[in-house]
Inverse folding.
């Protein structure tokens, strides 16, 4: 079985589908060609799927970790609290603790300069 040749033909089919789309070929014909492409890629064990639209806004996740860390500190679980802080630091997040809670910001060379605020709970 010539896998490299098969992949080459699949790329040719993709190119033809894209050219047909650009030329204004009707959706039914395009759908048929795309279904054929999916069937042929399946023979090679490949699956064509639409990429998931994923939000790149990680601020809510950092806020959540800051809140979890604050709870760990309240429970005096210092090792776990330090682990969260250290791992966030490795990812470029600087934590600043105060009596009111913890704030965070990106290290100057990492990500944006936007800040997030974590609270006690």
């Amino acid at each position: 079985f010539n896998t490299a040749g098969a992949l080459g033909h699949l790329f040719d089919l993709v190119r033809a589908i894209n050219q047909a789309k650009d030329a204004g070929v009707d959706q039914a014909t395009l759908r048929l060609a795309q279904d054929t492409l999916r069937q042929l890629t399946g023979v090679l064990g490949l699956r064509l799927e639409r990429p998931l639209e994923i939000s790149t806004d990680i601020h809510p996740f950092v806020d959540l970790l800051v809140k979890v860390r604050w709870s760990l500190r309240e429970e005096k679980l210092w090792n776990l609290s330090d682990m969260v802080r250290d791992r966030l630091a490795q990812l470029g997040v600087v934590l600043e603790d105060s009596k009111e809670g913890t704030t965070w910001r990106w290290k100057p060379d990492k990500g944006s300069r936007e800040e997030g605020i974590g609270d006690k709970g």
Remarks:
- The chain has a mean pLDDT of 84.
- The CA atoms of residues 69 and 81 lie 5 Å apart.
- The two ends are 60 Å apart (CA to CA).
- The longest helix spans residues 3-22.
